[in-house]
Amino acid sequence: MLNITITKTSAPKEKPNPEVLGFGKFFSDHMFVSEYTSGKWVNPRIVPFAPFLIHPASTVLHYGAEVFEGLKAYRTKDGGIQLFRPQENAKRMNVSCERMCLPTVPEADFMQILTEFVRLEQDWVPSLPGTSLYLRPYLFGNDEFLGVHPVDSAVFMLIGSPVGAYYAGGLSPVRIMVECDDVRAVKGGTGYTKCGGNYAASLRAGKRAIGEKCAQVLWLDGVNRKYIEEVGAMNVMFKIAGEVVTPELSGSILPGITRSSCIELLRASGIKVTERPVSFDEIIAAHGAGTLEEAFGTGTAAVISPIGEFFHLGKSYTVNGRQIGKTTQELYDMLTGLQWGRELDKFGWTYKI
Predict the structure, then answer these.
(1) How far apart are CA 296 and CA 128, in angstroms?
(2) Which one, of 242, 238, 212, lies nearest residue 319 by Cα?
């Protein structure tokens, strides 16, 4: 067990209005920090939230050696606090670390850090429906010299941000642009990890999408420019003729925790779910045949994001009359019901603080 030292802030911040939180705009009073040196993690501590000093030659600044995770702390109806499948975040972060040649964090230590941090910041977990405390663990290389090399020194940190809906419109169907030029990732690359470079490389296409009055992009594979991979920074699912299909995890797609939860919830509800290659040509054909019933993205930040329209090469393809589909709504209700403790957890996914 870690011996985490705690230094409480002497100047607590005023809590923001929970009705206007947005996403990622406010930060709680403290942060967790630990350094990796000489083959081990040292000095684990929770300290007042403040700017962090690093060397100008730090590895992360020059070579992007960085990974992160995202999860939430939820206020339950009885006033308690719980997390949703945090062990999966611990496992996935270590997979990302291994790919980026960064030191891993033992899962037990990861869970202890989360637990002690949320306990200290419990007053920052909002109670208004749809709000939560977003938790961002992240780890970066911090060697103080130039040159491409495996990392010897690193920093692991955790910060918290009280949040509302990821999209200002909440659970409203969005317009998506199919991206035909840039690609998000390729097999053998870093697509299956949560590293910052994946997201930075997506910004140009996202900017083009905004220019087309779209909320996000639909990513196609990097080899054939044909098969669907993700939507924005989320996994994506389609309901076609009563069956939910989603791109299979092939090495270039992030294994989303919300994605896997949705698959299990859908199957438990008696809905067939198939993980396989899905081309956009298939989606166009299903749209033309009237069998494309629903489409939605899945992810921690937005939970479920219904898709109301695809924009591709100047043509628009609407989904379910730009309305939220029955399965999409039911899935959102089931998932958020578990996360906020409104529904009985039969899967053992919740972790009480």
Answers:
(1) 25
(2) 238
pLDDT (0 to 100) of residue 165: 77
- Answer yes or no: are the C-beta atoms of 228 and 247 closer than 8 Å: yes
Tell me: the pLDDT tens digits for 58-113? 999 999 999 999 999 999 999 999 999 999 999 999 999 999 999 999 999 999 99
Torsion of CA 171, 301, 190, 158, to 10 degrees: 180
Whole-angstrom distance, CA of residue 117 vs CA of residue 300: 19
* Interstrand relation of 81-84 and 40-48 (parallel, antiparallel or unpaired): unpaired
Q: Write out the two tokens for 127.
A: 């109670």
Per the CB < 8 A criterion, the answer to whether 110 and 90 are in contact is yes
The pair of structure tokens assigned to 96 is 């990302």
First to last CA, the chain: 17
Kindly tell me the sign of the dihedral angle through the C-alpha atoms of 352, 193, 70, 233.
negative
How far CA 58 is from CA of 54, 97, 142, 151, in Å, comes to 7, 17, 5, 10
The dihedral built from the CA positions of residue 331, 333, 334 and 338, taken in this order, carries a sign that is: positive
Phi–psi pair at 320, nearest 5 degrees: 50, 40
State the average pLDDT for the chain: 96
Strand partners, 235: 298
Q: What are phi and psi of 137, to 5 degrees?
A: -80, 140
Residue found under tokens 């299979």: 248
- What is d(CA 218, CA 184) in angstroms, rounded to the nearest whole number? 10
Contact status, residue 230 vs residue 302, Cβ threshold 8 Å? no
Token pair for 206: 């996202």
Q: In whole angstroms, what is the distance from residue 330 CA to residue 161 CA?
A: 27
